[in-house]
Amino acid sequence: VDDVAANARLLERQLLGDGHRVLFARDGEEALAVVSRDHPDLVLLDVMMPTLDGFETCRRLKSDPATRLVPVVLVTALHESSDRVRGLEVGADDFISKPVNAAELTARVRSLLRIKRYTDELDSAESVIVSLALTIEARDASTEGHCQRLARYAVRLGRLLGLDDDNLSALARGGFLHDIGKVGIPDAVLMKPGRLTPEEFEVMRQHTVIGDRLCGELRSLRRVRPIVRHHHERLDGSGYPDGLRGGAVPLLAQIMGVVDVFDALTTERPYRQPMTVAAACEELTREARVGWRDRAMVDAFVSAAAEMGASAR
Amino acid sequence: VRDKGEIAAKWRHDMKNHLGVILGFSEMLLSEPGLPDVHRQDVREIHDAARRALGLLESARGEEAGG
Q: Is the Cβ pair B20, A102 closer than 8 Å?
């Protein structure tokens, strides 16, 4: 990305020898369009450009989840360290000084592309798991949209409780993945209308353990695993699979537990009508009273539930 | 209204950009093994002149900062 065409052509010539394919953009706006359309593996970004400059373009690329993982190199004739600091603040991955040395350029580009390949692999492993979760949801028509709603409710509740961005993002993914283990539960049990026998219930409980194992290999999911394993625990130790008590139940799993019950109660199931939001909140409050759930957490949820429930339909 | 220093900085930046293009393309030519020696000499002149101009630009900047 450079407003001086000759500069862009020079970079292209320097990179072609290494077998890269190069796309141009003349300014920040065009760069954003090209990146979202063509998904490049790397962006070389001039800093001083009219209208949208390199810093702002970089900041926008890095704040959009769809483009945040694309490495951005600021190519700059500026030397002041304040400019480097500013570059780091907007999320730049590397810097190259003008005039650009061909050997330095190709070496940096090579190393950033290697890192990009690793993140792509991790990313695709995670999207396989998410698609799997959505497939499971699709097996059972009555739970349609459940994952999306849960992700939304859980993030909302997490924000009310003052959690940071990393935890909120774990809750969003947890919403999609919490029941991933149901892939290992037979249809006869999973889709049985009406009550499960004690033996069937025992099989059903295994979805938490199976799910935990499925996520086990992925480092990027390490904050999500406790949600998958423990979202059916209760604070008095009567939940499953480990019968954890009180503070031993991970906070994110407690949050998922609350919103999971709420969504189950307020949506239609083959064996009953959906409850109203008010009735579901009453049930959650009852569960807090008997010691299954955290009272303050349930209160926080109830205070925002009317709004959330309305947006569900 | 922009002050003098800001205009000078913008001018230096643009000059540097263009000199960078001259340097970069002449380096590409020089790295071409098939370039005949007679042309190689010419390109080297272009390259070295651009280098010197860049040096002048840098020292002008230093003087400005100093004085």
A: no
pLDDT tens-digit profile of A281-296? Answer: 999 999 999 999 999 9
Task: Enumerate residues 6+ apart whose C-beta is below 8 A from A10.
Answer: A100, B20, B21, B24, B25, B28
To test the contact with chain A by mutation, choose from B6, B26, B27 the residue with the greatest count of A C-beta atoms within 10 A, namely B27
C-alpha A69/C-alpha A241 separation (Å) is: 36
pTM for this predicted structure: 0.57
Q: Which residues pair with A86 in a beta bridge?
A: none
The DSSP symbol for A193 reads: S
Query: C-alpha A33: how far from its chain's center?
Result: 23
Given the cut 0.90, state whether the ipTM is greater than it.
no
Residue A49 has pLDDT above 70, yes or no: yes
Closest by CA position to A312, among listed A255, A271, A257, A262: A262
A interface with B, Cβ–Cβ < 8 A, is 4, 6-7, 10, 13-14, 48, 77-78, 98-100, 102
Paired tokens of A255: 């949050």
